Amino acid sequence: MEKSDKDNAADKSNLSNVRNIGIMAHIDAGKTTTTERILFYSGRQHKIGEVHEGAATMDWMPQEQERGITITSAATTVFWKGTKINIIDTPGHVDFTIEVERSLRVLDGSVALFCSVSGVEPQSETVWRQADKYGVPRIAFVNKMDRMGANFFEAVHTMRDKLHANAIPVQCPIGAESEFKGMVDLVKMKAYIFHEEKQGADWDEVEIPADLVEKCNAMRSALLEELATIDEENESFMQKVLEDPSSLTEKEINAAIRKGVCKNKFNPVLCGSAFKNKGVQQLLDAVVAWMPSPLDRGDIKAHDLETDEDILLSPNNDQPLAALAFKIMTDPYVGRLTYLRIYSGTLLKGTPLLNTTKGEEERVSRLLEMHANKREEKEAFYTGDIVACIGLRKATTGDTICSPKRPVLLEKMEFPEPVIEMAIEPKSKGDREKLAMALSSLSIEDPTFRVSTHEETGQTIIAGMGELHLEILHDRMKREFSVDANVGKPQVAYKETITIPGSSQTKFVKQSGGRGQYAHVELEIRPNEKGKGNEVVSKIVGGVIPKEYITPTIKGIEEGLATGVLAGYNLVDVIVEIVFGSYHDVDSSEMAFKICGSMALKEAARKCKPIILEPIMKVDITTPEAYVGDIIGDLNRRRGQIMGQESSKNTFIIHGEAPLSEMFGYSTSLRSQSSGRASYSMEPSHFKEVPAKIQQDIIKK
After folding, report:
1. Is the pTM of the predicted complex or chain greater than 0.85?
2. Among the residues of 407-528, which ranges form H helices?
3. CA-to-CA distance for 519 and 49, rounded, in angstroms?
4. Confidence label for 221 from pLDDT (cuts 50, 70 and 90)
5. Cβ of 160: how many Cβ atoms within 10 Å?
């Protein structure tokens, strides 16, 4: 769709007409199908792409089209009723949770999709929690109202019950399953009946069907009462709700809903069937009417590097530039793409920039507005925009890109630790270099994908969030980088930690004629709080170790932490303090102190009763009642724990936890136990001490 001059002007001047939204949900709730309809109705494309046909625009990777799942968060921009809407379609599969996390970090609002049959599903809870973490306002869309077993009101109930959401319907469905015809708008108190033969492009606005009038009146009253309690400052609104609700105008009700959504106190619930083209335009109207603009989201916290103070950045084009890199991609045509969310200022092509996270200068050579994997080149982007840049060589996910005039640091992004790893090697010597390049590119793109070298065997080890995660990355190496590689069996990414405090006094002395090597380091170490990570602190006073040797010592300690003392796994949740040492005027060097730091760390850790930790997975299994006993018995045999059960429409949902080491190949086992009728989802939960006997086996290996 060609943009008008009016639309282009809106890019620059009217921030209130910009929406940055994501679409999030459990796998198979219809996220990509809904996005495809949005592209169609907004005029962005002239044909609807279907996921089941492998033709969805937003699922542009071959692996996405083959599997019918979303792997990367794709970005696109549409215009609806004079408002610019930047949309990110995120994955639902837990292995790609980082894609959801980093998208939510830069969004102003989100549409949460729920299946009308299943309601809140396990991954819906995960993405809802992620949105809570970043304070992202949400509106809900109950999709698939045409499916057998659709129940809008039960889906809303599960949102309140499981997510503790303030989910209030703003629409009432007309019919359900094959009888689903449209919906009643509780703000306008009008019914929309869709014309199926025109792909939902047309509908009739009619009076509310007689059999729904009483129900809709009750639902509207509940909606208005809730809005009155949310906005207690608006006394005239509350008075009208109490005395004469019919006197409230559409404008007043929409303003109250918008205020509740922007403050994150209210989650309006709409309904429809994206696949049957019903309700998507109404969802777009809701995004424009109720979702926050960058102005509504307000000032952003940042750290001013010149004054060393925390400041607030206002969303304004005239301010110096501040943007966050939230995604890196390798594009086959233009090379490395860096996605930025601009929080303040204007980004012009060719402008000198500063990457304050890396302390590096950068320059953008080209600016692109992305539509999935298609692109449109532009000269400038403004506050609130999501932009793809070419030319940022050093930027990685989570980096702050800003104007050299005002060096600031935006809040960092946190990434979960990988839980699964496997060895990888090229099939031929000729592929060795190509493999190294592929692994480097993929690890830059995906912060949850780690590459390391095993200290003893020299093997290259890749680590990720699950079997599917590594399988997709292996597949991408073949297709995108033409690398043939052999991979080993998946292994658990264990961790090590210490249980008691300890200390060490270590000297590294080497004399071999001429100049020798000398370093002396004394450390004190103790356990840190669970999940707090490692802290390495220098407590050196009086120059007993000169400043230039402190940094190499810390590097050596960090290398020691990376290889542990029991079985070569990362040492985690440890506080290390460098308390004393000595040096030699001639023989001391940076290398000597680095080696000594690593030796001192290992010597101290061995005295601190080290243990091995294993990743524990949160497992949610949905099964017909007949198989519950067998599935629970099997989970117990896998050292699992049942955390709870619930039943819904002849199916049982079992919530449990189990060690990842016992869950390899679980999908095959579950299929055979349930004749293919049970399904499950699994995500990392926490790390826990490995039982003593298993720990010995791990160390022996």
Report:
1. no
2. 432-445, 467-481
3. 65
4. very high
5. 15
